[in-house]
Amino acid sequence: MDNTYALEMEEITKVFPGVRALDGVTLRVKPGTVHALMGENGAGKSTLMKCLFGIYKEDGGIIKLNGSQCRFKDSHDALKSGVSMIHQELSNVPERSVAENLWLGREPLKKSLLIDHKKMNADTKELLARLEMDIKPEKRIGALSISMQQNCEIAKAVSYNSSIVVMDEPTSSLTDNEVDHLFKIIRQLRSQNVAVIYISHKMEEIFAIADEVSVMRDGKMIGTYDICDIDNNKLISLMVGRDATLRFPTFKSSIGDVCLKAEHLSAMNPRSFKDVSFELHRGEILGIGGLVGAQRTELMEAIFGVRGVSAGKISISGKEIVNMTPKKAIQNGVGMITEDRRGSGIFPLMNISANTSIASLGEYLTKLHLLNHNRLNEESRRYNEALRTKTPTMETLIQNLSGGNQQKVIISRWLMTLPDILIMDEPTRGIDVGAKYEIYQIMGQLVEQGKAIIMVSSEMPELIGMSHRVMVLCAGRCTGTLDKSECSQENIMRLATKFM
Amino acid sequence: METKKLLGSTKKVVSQYTTWVTFVGLLLLLSILTQGNALKWNSVRNLLIAESVRSFAALGVGMIIITKGIDLSIGYVVCLTASVAASFAQNPDYASAIYAGHTFPLFVPILVAIAAGGAFGLFNGWLVAYGKLPPFIATLGSMSIAKGLQLIYTRAAVVGSLNQNFKDISQGNVGPIPNLIIYVAIAVVIVWVFLKHTRQGTNFYAIGGNPQAARVSGINVERDLMMVYFYAGLLYGIAGTLLASRLGLANSLTANGMELDAIAAVTVGGVSQSGGVGNVSGMIVGVFTMGLINYGMSFLGVDSYYQQLVKGLIIIVAVYFDMKKYARRS
Predict the structure, then answer these.
(1) Cβ-nearest to B209 among A349, A361, A373
(2) Does A147 lie in the same domain as A37?
(3) Does residue A292 share a domain with residue A181?
(4) Is residue A253 part of a domain?
(5) ipTM above 0.90?
(6) Regarding beta strands A68-69 and A60-65, do their DSSP bridges make them parallel or antiparallel, or are they unpaired?
(7) A247 domain residue, yes or no
(8) What are phi and psi of A480, to 5 degrees?
(9) Domain end residue (candidates: A212, A240, A268)
(10) In chain B, domain spans
(11) Which residues in chain A have their CB less than 8 angstroms from residue B216's CB?
């Protein structure tokens, strides 16, 4: 190996109708390093990676692997050449075992005909042990936690003897402990001379793990820096093209009466949340902290009526609501921005206007009970303009927008229902720094107007920076509520791991 | 540069209006091949009449497919409703009439057939929405039930000798325009207004596009899903009535295979199997595209065996492009 670089992407250009997605981008990655790739959503990181994996064909430039030029047909082709990708979204066969998933498409064979399950399981066991992953090869992969499933994908990449591993936001659904374990694995890969390309929006992680960082903006490569020569603010200003000093906006809201009260709520599923009580006040942001699996989302879904409860009472503005459904919740002034934007947020093949107005159709009817399209479109536009959603037109399909802008459309959807209470489950997941700050500003404005927000978040800084109070769940039970003054990473962690 | 731009925008128009472009293209092709003979008013009129009943079925199943469902029971439900309608419209002096000796007012066969269609729709809808059965299986089952009921009801005999009033429902004309065409036009307008301008119509697209997101947005997914099958059932009931009236009889072979024709037509018309996509104009153009292909081939003297084959290929090609268009993006 006398090559300085494991991967060289030289002057890559990719043009889509109407937009220059990549404009002469050069990325060089050394073997045995962790190379962070950063940039706002829409900066071109994913497009660059798609060119690497042959999903897009670049319009110009060359790709060299260990010094020799190459071009992959697809990601499987890349995998065979030792270039693998750990996706943000998992892509496994949930009903099959860990081992079967790992060796999918290249199972060891007995008499070159029948699958040798014994060898497959043994090989998997050995591989997982080497990576210090405590997973049983025979276990059904869908039964594992998200982080465990992700570990399996990493193990798969290792099993192909990959020399380059691309990780796209690998920590977006992991808890701090799991992130630590992931970093341990990444360091192990690095020591085996593997080059890791690490795509993430999270500053803390970049500084914890990366050796070098490349920053992209608007389809151009801004530069590659040694991690020692750069700090948090410098990185943010490189990404957004302006100075960014504040991470959270300041807002002054006066805390009012109780507007939502949950008493002794228990889920239908006995393994989910149990006996949870809390109060939410007007003008307040109540943060909900906890590790993945703490049943925070399930609790929010129960309050919004997406799932039922076996016991407990929910009251809105002093009025008890029995048999809550999303429809009743909306009628009582509650809105919910779900955690899984793609799964339960957007209508991918509908346009911005329709995506915004879908929850308020009943408020915009003509005398004949037909939809008042003019007013619906007008109001959708007004909310999206107020939130500064970046879109060519209101008729653009929502799937063509970046994650941050999709999120703004969904916030617009709920603002249009004129809610008093907004439940925001991971409101900034997978969103770039600039859009994140804008969403924080919107949240601030809402509570200043006297609305109340419940924010579930796995990002500690966000939880601490934005909430008036933080309620922490652990294994489905409320382990404590912290006031602003007591809110620290340590206190939250202590409560979040109380029953572990 | 200019030509490139022109090409680009042409491409965009073609991909956006594939259905219309195909239809107009076929129309032109046919008129060239037959030196315009195939497109005289009389022939066009026959084509419209021939496709009219199918239009009702297509509008029904089109709405269902928008919610990401499917309905395989169409053919036999239409067959059953046609038989029911016919049984209440037989001449009273016809010895083998099901209700021999009885005369019913004209509204009875119509209402009973529509009610039967609606009942089947509710049954299908309940199974899919509340019973959580896959639409394919639920409607496969009800297809067989409908067929069984039809055979039991008619004792597998032809329900014939229908009175003239009933036949006139579909065989009459308003000036030069056949009644059937007017019925289709009315149905098209109603379904169009419904899908485009009512809450429930919009909800159908949302449910087909992302049922979880629809639920979170306050849509009563189960109720709306049940209703889409119910509305489709009503349309099948109308289709059955009109078919019996037009043919002057009904038997166990009436409307056989109509489910495939209707599903194929709306698919060609751009109603995507991936759900949440499609509109009324596409559904209707789809029906007439398929009709035009049939009719064109007959006119050109193509063996009917080949027609079946060509139809199959067209369906596959249409779905192939549909999948390419939508599957990749998600």
Answers:
(1) A349
(2) yes
(3) no
(4) no
(5) no
(6) antiparallel
(7) no
(8) 155, 160
(9) A240
(10) 42-256
(11) 304, 306, 326, 336, 338, 344-345
In this prediction, residue A103 carries a pLDDT of 86
For position A178, what pLDDT does the model report? 82
Residue B212: list chain A partners with CB under 8 A.
338, 340, 343-344
CB-count exposure of residue B301 (10 Å: 0-12, 13-18, 19+):
exposed
Q: Are residues A327 and A435 in the same domain?
A: yes
Q: Which of A68, A50, A69, A3 is nearest to A31 (CA)?
A: A3
- Domain-located, residue A245: no
CATH number at residue A409: 3.40.50.300
Q: Tell me if A269 is assigned to some domain.
A: yes
Given A191, A207, A240, the domain boundary residue is A240
> Residue B210 to residues A90, A343, A361, A422, B276: CA-CA distances in angstroms?
19, 7, 17, 21, 8
CB contact under 8 A, A365 and B193: no
Beta carbons within 10 angstroms of residue B277's beta carbon? 21
Give the minimum alpha-carbon distance from A342 to chain B in angstroms, rounded to a whole number. Answer: 9
Out of A343, A370, A399, the one facing B198 most closely (by C-beta) is: A370
Min Cα distance A383 → chain B (Å) is 17
pLDDT at A432: 72
How many domains, in total, are found in chain A?
2
Say whether both A235 and A262 belong to one domain: no
What sign has the CA pseudo-torsion A382, A384, A389, A395?
Answer: negative
Please check whether residues A328 and A359 belong to one and the same domain: yes
Query: Cα separation of B69 and B63, whole Å?
Result: 9
Percentage of residues in chain B with pLDDT exceeding 70? 94
Distance from CA of B79 to the nearest CA of A (A): 34
Report the distance separating Cα A410 and Cα A348, nearest Å.
12
- Interface membership of A347 toward B (CB under 8 Å): yes
Supply the mean pLDDT for chain A: 88
Same domain, A274 and A376: yes
Tokens, residue A478:
């409320």
* Chain B residue numbers touching A416 (CB-CB < 8 A): none
Token digits for A185? Answer: 């694995």
Q: Which of A83-92, B44-53, B266-275 has the lowest mean pLDDT?
A: A83-92
Q: How far is A422 from chain B (nearest CA, A)?
A: 13
Domain of A394 in residue numbering reads as: 258-496
Using one digit for the tens of pLDDT, what is the confidence trace for B101-149? 888 999 999 999 999 999 999 999 999 999 999 999 999 999 999 999 9
Residue contacts between A and B (CB atoms, under 8 Å) = 82
Using a CB-CB distance cutoff of 8 angstroms, which residues of chain B are in contact with residue A344? 210, 212-213, 215-216
pLDDT digits (tens, 9 = 90+) for A103-128: 887 888 887 788 888 888 999 999 88
pLDDT of B11:
65
- Choose from B191, B217, B274 for mutation: most chain A CBs within 10 A: B217
Q: How far is B1 from chain A (nearest CA, A)?
A: 14
What is the per-residue pLDDT across A302-325, written as a single tens digit (0 to 9) for each? 999 999 999 999 999 999 999 899
A262 and A179 in one domain?
no
- Show the tokens assigned to A179: 């992130």
Q: Does residue B330 register a pLDDT over 50?
A: no
